Amino acid sequence: MTRSGPLGYIEFMTVAPERRMESKTFCFCICAVIVIAWTVEVGAHHSRSRFDKSKIVEVEGELVSISWRNPHIRMQIREIKDSGEEVIWDLEGDSLSILRRTNASPEGLNKGDRVRVAGNPTVRSSNEISVHNLLAPDGREILLKVSAEPRWSERVSGDETVWFTGGTGGGLAEEIGIFRVWSTDLSPGSTVRTFWRDDYPLTESARVKHGAWNPLTDTTAPGCEPKGMPLIMEQRHPMEFVQTEDRILLRMEEYDTVRTIHMQADSPDGDPQTPILGYSTGRWQDDSLIVTTVGVDFPYFDSKGTPQGSNPNFVERFWVSEDGSRLEYEITATDDEIFTEPVTLTRDWVWRPGEQVRPYECDQS
Question: Which CATH architecture has domain 181-350?
Answer without folding.
Answer: Beta Barrel (2.40)
